[in-house]
Amino acid sequence: MKKHQWIVGILFLVFTLTTSKMNAQDKTTLNSNEQSLVEISALTATGNIEQLKIKLNNGLDNGLSINEIKESLTQLYAYCGFPRSLNAINAFKTVVEERKAKGIIDKEGKKIVIENNSLDKYEQGRKVLQELTNKYQPKPAPNFGEFVPRIDAFLKEHLFADIFACDVLNFQQRELVTISALAAMTDVEAQLQAHIDMGKNTGITEVQLEKVADIIGKVINQKQANILRKIIDVKPLSVSESDMIVHISEAEILPQDLEESKAILKEETSKQKTEIIMNNTEHYTFELSNKVTRQKVTFKNRYGITLSGDLYIPKDDSDEPLAAIAISGPFGAVKEQASGLYANQMAERGFIALAFDPSYTGESSGEPRNVASPDINTEDFSAAIDYLGLHEKVDRNKIGIIGICGFGGFALNATAIDKRVKAVATTSMYDMSRVNAKGYFDANTLEQRTKILEDLSEQRWEDAKNEKPETSSNNLPEKLTGDEPSFVAQYHNYYKTPRGFHPRSINSNGAWTKTTPLSLMNMPILTYIEEISPRPVLIIAGENAHSKYFSEDAYKAAAQPKELIIIPNTVHVDLYDKIDIIPFDKLTNFFTENLK
Could you give all domains of the chain from N- to C-terminal order, each with its CATH number? Predict the structure, then answer.
């Protein structure tokens, strides 16, 4: 019975819902491992343990090894002191133990070698520093080293010899860790400048440093981020009043003030979401490319519902009409989240892209709110095709679709119906009709399905009596208890944290109506998937995604031409926003080849 309750609960929850070394080949951005190192280092330096635990979990989910994180936290003692380092290490120990208790197996990574058997550690460290700075390093170091030779010895023999001798992290990773920590700390501009220079010598680019500043602005504040921007000669961003406040998480706490400080810290951790809610009209979970313009648009579907979208257009578009892509999803998300990120990336690559809110959600119209329909949500894609085909900059013979998560299934259905669509791609696809009709992995028995339908049928009388539909209480939890399935924790870490939170997103800030599953349970949306052919289908899923079987089965059911891509070491939500994991080059090639 308990298992059945979990299955039913998870169904509703859906609605509200790499390597051991870092890959530095793409110099135009930071990959997900590098971004996690920046976040972990900055939060360690400032002592924000609650946020650090979230980022430590994210780092492991992104593929950082346990030993890579251990080594980062160890190195940071030299820059932000033993108290900060030890607190972070203890927090990481807790995170690792909690994940083991949930059955999550994280990779240990390369062995950490403790011993350094160099006969002359000072000379070893001096040569390492010389390599990092690309300058001759005298013995002792000028100024501070002459004044206090002992600190010069510690610097060379311990930091740049003992610590840097461990090859779990390479020099570029170590400088990224150091730059991130120093960028989060106050009054260390001279040291930050020195390590930026060293970082550049290891291969860190200006563009990557700008991304570090962006991350510092999000996890620390814009005031600190602007210090880094000033050093690398990038225009500073405006500083909000809240950025001028000294946070309790950045202060040393006396024992007698501990309980009061915990309450204040809890308030601080929700501050970012509160600020987002207060300023939701302009909040996006990603940054607009400087190669792209974005404009608000509206259009109507066949049922008279006004849909709200964001149209992304390449700045360097020619006079010739361009190929276009309609994008929506995930299920319960809004256009300011993953679909907008995809549209931004595809427009940067030369396509006109339209990200839109489905009917009854986000800024789109339709009453009652927070309702899904296999028919209307399929129609929403065709309405987007209507709009794009009438746009003066679009070649209406070159229009495709990308569907994310639950809207992957609707995208396939729309393409089967709407012959104007020339190519379709899905990422982390869900078949919402199948999961509602049969449960995850088709585990629901006929008795369980009948009971769900009986309960939903009775709910209709309650809704009719109250003259409004009741919302489900099975939305994503505000706080994880450790008893949730891993994919629920992954949803939480996207939708309920600043990473992906948006106040208009049902999964972030609301719930679907209780009776939403009714129409989905009896209307299978992939019945005619074979009729997409001869138009091509590209299906992309994560190797470790709980939803992978939807993609695999859709691929089997589709006719040629078709392609299935499984991304290694990737979970479902990784394909929402991790730019270095989402195969945008493959998507670009797919649509370039097939929208012509």
Answer: 31-111+169-269 (1.20.1290.10), 118-167 (no CATH), 289-594 (3.40.50.1820)
Number of other CB atoms surrounding residue 527 within 10 Å? 12
pTM equals 0.60
pLDDT score at 61: 87
Q: What is the number of alpha carbons within 13 Å of residue 268 lying toward its C-beta? A: 22
Residue 99, classed as helix, strand or coil, is helix
Choice among 62-71, 219-228, 469-478, 532-541 with the minimum mean pLDDT: 469-478
CA distance 113 to 500: 38
Q: Is 355 helix (H, G, I), strand (E, B) or coil?
A: strand
Neighbours of 391 (CB within 10 A): 18
Task: Retrieve residue 429's tokens.
Answer: 């696809």
> CA end-to-end span of the chain, whole Å?
54
Q: SS3 for 512-577, per residue?
A: CECCCHHHHHCCCCCCCHHHHCCCCEEEEEECCCCCHHHHHHHHHHCCCCEEEEEECCCCCCHHHH
Going from the C-alpha of 153 to that of each of 140, 162, 163, 221, the distances in angstroms are 8, 12, 14, 35
pLDDT in tens, 160-190: 877 887 888 999 999 999 999 999 999 999 9
What rounded mean pLDDT belongs to the chain?
87
Residue 263's contacts (CB-CB under 8 Å, 6 or more residues apart) are none
Distances from the Cα of 336 to the Cα of 308, 310, 357, 428, 490, angstroms:
11, 9, 9, 18, 19
Q: How far apart are CA 276 and CA 282, in angstroms?
A: 9
For residue 411, list its beta bridge partners.
none
